[in-house]
Amino acid sequence: MSENNVWKKIELYFYFEFVEDLSVEKKQQLEKSIGYYYIPNDFTIYQNKSYPFDVLNETDFHINQATFIWMLYNLHIPRVKDLIKFHFDKFSGEKIDFLEYVFHELAGSKLSQGNIQLPPPQQKIIVMEWCQAKLNEIRFENKKPEPNSNKVFISVDRIISLREINNENFDFQKLIRLLEEINHNYSFENFLSVAILSRAVIDHIPPIFSCKTFNEVANNYGNTSFKKNMQHLNNSMRSMADSYLHVPIRRKESLPNENQINFSREIDFLLAEIIRIQ
């Protein structure tokens, strides 16, 4: 049977039936196509039809890679991503191994006509880009830090108290969300975000104290102890956060550490007063 005839017999399956059961007729056609590959319910170029399995294993994967490339280069472009995703999902081994092997095999494969090397087919480019994007996604997930649930910047009790406030003049939803996001970022040691969000808090709350700016709050509201803490926020914390927000890129940068952004005591003073006056 010529390659063209074999392709005609299986191309409809590639187009429409990646995850559909094979009809008896199609299955019989594939069984007669000696040298080509199938499994009972899902067509895959990784499995020799003499040894059908429910899942793909690494031996199938490596033995039949050349067949995969041959099929891929003959596949219509709109179905290319479906093909690679189908086999990626089906492969039972380490997904990174699958992606790296396919990527490097395709990178090393070349089409030529006589002594002339032909440009890579679009199918090859699509699959290599898909594999690279998937590799980046998996590597990012593997490196994603775990939160430290013991690290809290804003007292949870303060957030609960703010939720219980029913104020006709002010909606506290945004303030609460800012505080929750500060805690979330602090648990992941995202100290740059903690600094920027803390600055957003002091810019957000002045109307609660009948002020237009936090500078007015720090200098005019409350007793001496409250003013001292608010002035520390207004001067030190604001300046520190502004340095990360507004300074353009430089030849060398220094990122904030936990000690530098730790204004949690002063912010707690602020939240306690907001709760008290409601």
Domain count, please report it: 2
The ordered string of helix (H) and strand (E) elements is HHHHHHEEHHHHHHHH
Low-confidence stretches: 1-22, 33-54
Shape assignment = elongated
Oligomer: single chain
Helix content: 55-70%
Strand line-up across the major sheet: 1-2
Gyration radius, in Å? 31 Å
Summarize the biggest pleated sheet: 2 strands, antiparallel
| Count of beta strands | 2
Beginning-to-end CA distance, first to last residue: 85 Å
Give average pLDDT, whole number. 76
Strand % is under 5%
What's the helix count?
14
Characteristic key phrases:
278 residues, mainly alpha, two-stranded antiparallel sheet, 61% helix, 1% strand, disordered N terminus
Walk me through what this model shows.
The protein is mainly alpha-helical and 278 residues long. Helices cover 61% and strands 1% of the residues. The protein has 2 domains: 3-143, no CATH class; 156-276. The protein has a two-stranded antiparallel sheet with strand order 1-2. It is elongated and about 90 Å long. The model is unreliable at 1-22 and 33-54 (pLDDT under 50).
